[in-house]
What we know:
Blueprint: E1 2-6, H1 24-29, H2 34-49, E2 56-57, H3 59-73, H4 95-102, E3 108-115, H5 120-128, H6 131-138, E4 144-150, E5 162-169, E6 180-186, E7 189-195, E8 202-209, E9 212-214, E10 217-222, E11 225-231, E12 239-248, E13 253-256, E14 262-266, E15 275-276, E16 312-322, E17 326-336, E18 344-349, E19 352-357, E20 363-371, E21 377-379, E22 381-386, E23 392-396, E24 400-402
Parallel strand pairs: 1-3, 2-4
Antiparallel strand pairs: 3-5, 4-5, 6-7, 7-11, 8-9, 8-12, 10-11, 12-13, 12-14, 14-15, 16-17, 17-20, 18-19, 18-22, 21-24, 22-23
Helix pairs in contact: 2-5, 3-4
Amino acid sequence: MIKIQMLVVVALTVVCSRAGALTQAQEEGRDANNDDIALIVLANKERAARNIPALIWSDKLAKAARSHNFDMASHSGCYQHENCERNALGEIVKAADRITLFFGYWTGMGENIHTQQSSPTAYHNGWMNSPSHRDHILDARYNLFGSAIIGAGQVSPFQNSFSTEDFAQAGVDPTLVRNIAGGAVVEGKVMVNYFHDQGLAPRSVTAIVGNQCLSPSLNSGTRSNGTYQASFPSGLRGCVPVRFEAVRDDGVVARFPYDGRSILVSTDGSACAPQAVSQQVDCAAPTQPDPVTDPGTDPGTDPGTGTIAPTEASFVLEKIKDGRESETYKLTVTLSGGELQGGQIRLLKDDLVWKKGPPNKGNFVRTFGFNRKRQGGTYSFTVEGTTKSGLPIKVNSPEVTITIR
């Protein structure tokens, strides 16, 4: 399933150049900013109103979107889903091929592009007013999403603004959503998407704006699949940090951004970095920690702290078949640590769940194949979940490089 749509705009806009033009590496490598993330918040608001499961934010798809925005912005007159230049072999690089470079595990994909709009809301409204673009936003088969906006004049003096939304259908464990699918400040409103695939509603939803704790109310959808909203506080100046938390009825805490940092929102035109280290504001004491290791936490932390269970894991990757069309590998994960043996764990590869459930005598074995037409790359694996006693666990493998010849 591959669907791509562009919104045709006839008018041309001449803009002035900004100092310090972006490079492709800078644009692709940056963090997602508030305007980028606002697009998933608006998309999920539409989906919640129709009881469609929320899209999950993917940094890989967002990077693919930033790459395409830069490509269009750096080539005058290029407004298309294919890359603006052919590759070294003279071949046209289609949207599906480009997205695969950044996120190679989709079973279906779609893309919206648009140009010359002034805000995330304007981009979103343009797509929603176009039936083919609206179909992408409301397609229940898609569960992953990444988006980006590049401003006018950031790359070249007479360059328009562009926005790209990339959608993917892939095998994702719903618990990876952490129950907050997205959150941003949109048109003076603090908005956050809450979603639980089993219908578990939140006990509370909190937006931490600067040093203030807001309690957004349900604005669209249902309590377990809805968008919560509050007014942005007045009187704040400069680059204001914003992050989101939700406490489920079972006491588990969900956070966005997922890595614990904050989105920086400019209130007065100040140039802000996209994200920053999270500010320490205690809005409410959770009854149970989020089952994810806090950034920077040592996996060997004493279990008495209640943050992570003691365990070790070994990862062995070996090629077991070398065929004409593909290569097959076997990954064996051996776990130890006593209390872990009774726990529920998941074996993950990038954004995909490969195997989940209780370990078999401490081991997981997974075989997987690579088609020779597909690029290899650097991969890592994560075992995470909880023990019988409820302690969260998370063990990361070293990075593994697979080269397909």
